[in-house]
Amino acid sequence: MTPLDFALFAFPVSVGAGLLGSLLGFGGGVIIVPALTLLLEMDIRFAIGASIISVIATSTASSSAYLRKGLVNLRVGMFLELAMVGGALAGALAVGWVPKSWLYLLFAGMLLFSAVAMLRRGGSEAAPVPDDSLADALRLHGSYFDDATGRSVCYRVARPRLGFAIMFFVGAASGMLGAGAGALRVPATDLAMRLPMKVSAATSTFMLGVTATASAGVYFARGDIDAFIAAPVAAGVLAGSSIGSTLLGRINTRVLRWVFVLVLCWIGVEMLRKGLR
Amino acid sequence: MIERAPEAAGIEVQPAPQLETLLSRLLRVGILVSVALMALGTALSYRHHPAYFERTRTPTPEAWSAAYAPQSFGEVFEGVREGSGRALVVLGLLTLVATPVARVAVSLVAFARRRERAYAVLSALVLGLLLLSFNLGRRASNSPRVETQPASIEEPAK
């Protein structure tokens, strides 16, 4: 396979990964890693190196668009970012202490739980949100304009401490496995802190870049980031997430929720399989 | 989540999103520079290696993967000076990786200037942890490198 062969394969796959990643607030590693390792039988090291680059590309391209549209909750993003980066560092130090199969099983459980909870949350985005003094003090609450309904929506943020704790754990655990933070943040952002779906996806893309950057240094220094593998992936993902980020505002929240739940279930089952192997 | 006037909800609407606009632009510049470097590097490499244009049906990219994955800034800059297309591509990738870090640094300055102490401290902590993780990464990688496939396509020093 020549570099051109690879680029012609990787580019369209990466466009898809970027598109889905920017809509759901995931990094795109869920698509990139299996595509490269299963279809091309590539060494997992380079696949993970490319997927780290894809996370950063998705995050940078989509959050640039979402920041401009006011879909990112900057304060929540900065707040949870600290938890994730701190967790990722803790995870890197703790690597080897926890068996990976346990992590996979735990993650699978978390994902399937999130999927069910997101479904049940259905139309209840309007349910009252418990007051929280820390959320008030940090002025985490916000508002955004929903292009799909043509209305401006105000929301209040709940349980920041719980969200922070979950994010720390997610950062640590996903740092050990090298993936999964985008999907695993759902219990923190959507269930604990009660961000509206679109804000949560946009804010998630915003945070993921920084978390991935923390591990990118390690992968780069290890020589896992190959120029000709990572570059077509980066280019495709940048294109895909630029397209995706123009869609998020306009897409119907219910459609988005269904896609989201399906992808969560898929990743959950994948992790279950890895954990049981 | 209820639709009503923000004032009536007693919620402070986020102040004029100047910071958001600034950060959005910063990220965009990072992307453009990175894409430009990657495109230029790729074009150079393909010109040096007409063989890259060939289409083969072998399933894996083993022949050329790991041919060039530099591990330090020194290696990258040296490659760029020698006119290596791959090194230029890696420089583009590094620019992409550096963009979120720059975003945190700019947020830190912006929050400090707006005297939002809590968020200035938050950004400073994130930045500190990032720098710490880069250091840890370098230290961890000082252990011997795992050799995978032999490099079969070399970038000529041209």
Kindly list the characteristics that best describe this protein.
heterodimer; A: 277 residues; mainly alpha; two-stranded antiparallel sheet; 4% strand; B: 158 residues; 4 helices; 0% strand; disordered C terminus
Give your account of this protein's structure.
- The complex is a heterodimer of chains A (277) and B (158).
- With 277 residues, chain A is mainly alpha-helical.
- Chain A has one domain (3-276).
- Chain A is 75% helix and 4% strand.
- Chain A has helices spanning 3-24, 29-39, 44-69, 74-94, 100-121, 133-137, 160-177, 181-184, 186-192, 197-222, 227-247, 253-276, and strands at residues 142-146, 151-155.
- Chain A has a two-stranded antiparallel sheet with strand order 1-2.
- Chain A is globular.
- The mean pLDDT of chain A is 83.
- Helices cover 59% and strands 0% of the residues of chain B.
- The longest helix of chain B has 31 residues, at 18-48.
- Chain B is an all-alpha fold and 158 residues long.
- Chain B has helices spanning 18-48, 73-81, 85-113, 117-140.
- Chain B contains four helices and no strands.
- Chain B starts with 17 loop residues before the first helix and ends in an 18-residue tail after the last helix.
- Chain B has a domain at 20-51 and 69-140.
- The chains are: A mainly alpha (277), B mainly alpha (158).
- At the A-B interface, helix 1, helix 3, helix 4, strand 2 and helix 10 of A face helix 1, helix 3 and helix 4 of B.
